[in-house]
Write a structure and sequence with these properties.
With 264 residues, the protein is an alpha/beta fold. The chain has two domains: 73 residues, no CATH class; 147 residues, Rossmann fold. 45% of the residues lie in helices and 12% in strands. The chain has a seven-stranded mixed beta sheet with strand order 1-2-6-5-4-3-7, sandwiched between helices. Strand 5, helix 9 and strand 6 form a beta-alpha-beta unit. The radius of gyration is 18 Å and the shape is elongated.
Length: 264
């Protein structure tokens, strides 16, 4: 059977729903060593399904000159992650399934599976990203709050990275209308820890998304990956008080690249 990942880059052609077996196979493949979103899709396109790709990973590693294949996520590990996700109310959704932000599904390196908590309806609404300095000025925080409320009043969902400063102000101001937090770590490792209560406030109307395993502790290199999800899901990105070499400007540059990909 042909795996629906072959059409996942086109949300209109993506599957309505993966079967339980397909979801487990997809999770095993994306959680295996040396398999990112682009490699995932290349393997699916070559072998037709995640299960067939998993069977061939050791042979592919040997052909590539590796002394031994990387770790392949086991059935037991995948089942445990699925069970733990259910316990905390998280869904593992594929592009085209309910809850997967449609604009994010269209980028070249969209996560094959996205961990989602909260209101799936919010994920389908138009989103605007508001990001900026963690050490923002009082004026910057007030502007972020004002703009977030005005955009929320215009029925946009505010998406941001749950960081201190501008992100926090944007989330707080829009929480009652719908706000989506994009996590750099897993759903069981909220960063920063003092924003756990803020995240809980967002989940009733908005939500949280992560491509990482549930217990993943965010590292420095994970924040650019998070920023690509923010820019990919949003119609536009507003940057407030960002330093020249900040992650917020990385998000803006990613948004510009995504726009070029979608319009070029």
């Amino acid at each position: 059977m042909i795996d629906p990942a072959n059409t996942a880059k086109d949300p209109a052609k993506a599957p309505t729903r993966l079967t339980d077996e397909q979801r487990r196979d997809w999770l095993r493949l994306i959680r295996s060593d040396h398999v990112g979103p682009r490699t995932f899709r290349a393997l699916i396109n070559q072998f037709g399904s995640a299960r067939s790709a998993l069977e061939r990973l050791p042979t592919l590693a040997q052909r590539g000159g590796a002394m031994r294949s990387g770790r392949i996520c086991s059935i037991d590990e995948a089942d445990q992650e699925i069970a733990r996700s259910r316990r905390i109310g998280a869904l593992l959704v594929a592009p085209g399934e309910a809850g997967y932000p449609p604009r994010l599904a269209a980028i070249d390196d969209a996560p094959p599976l996205l961990g989602l908590r909260g209101n799936t309806d919010a994920m389908a609404r138009p989103m605007i990203a508001i990001v900026g300095s963690r050490n923002a000025s009082g004026a910057g925080l007030k502007f972020a709050e004002k703009l977030s409320r005005e955009l929320a009043d215009a029925e946009f969902v505010i998406i941001s990275g749950l960081a201190r400063g501008i992100d926090r102000a944007a989330h707080q101001a829009s929480a009652a209308f719908g706000s989506v937090a994009v996590l750099a770590g897993g759903h069981e490792r909220i960063y920063p820890a003092e924003h756990v209560d803020l995240l809980d406030d967002l989940l009733a109307v908005g939500g949280a998304i992560s491509e990482m395993p549930l217990g993943h502790v965010p590292r420095a290199k994970d924040f650019p990956r998070r920023n690509r999800l923010i820019s990919g899901a949003a119609l536009g990105v507003v940057v407030i008080e960002a330093a020249e070499r900040s992650g917020s400007l990385i998000t803006a540059r990613m948004a510009a690249r995504v726009w070029d990909e979608k319009t070029g």
